[in-house]
Amino acid sequence: MKLEYTGRGTTVTPKLKALADAELARMAQLIPRLVSAHVILTEDKHRKIAEVTLMAANESLVAVCEGAEMQAVLHDALRKVEAQAMKHKERKLTIERQAKPDSAEPFVDVVTPALSS
Q: Average pLDDT in the 69-90 region?
């Protein structure tokens, strides 16, 4: 999995990077074909914004959180992405378990007329 970190107006500290690495490693087990993850940390005057984007083979998950402390905001964004991943996984399992039956039998019964003697 390819990890990218971007700091806009702030630096990505080793503590924040370690937090994100631990959470993303856990999500790599949850999402089967996780290709890349991008963590963007932005700091404007008094607000801190964390955006986490996960790219899997067939889907893209994005979460954005805003708050006063960067570590809490990053943690919240990672939890949102995890909730999205769980929802997609449950939806996929539900579809697989309740799949429509194979169309081995014809939909219309063919009635042969009885021969009268």
A: 92
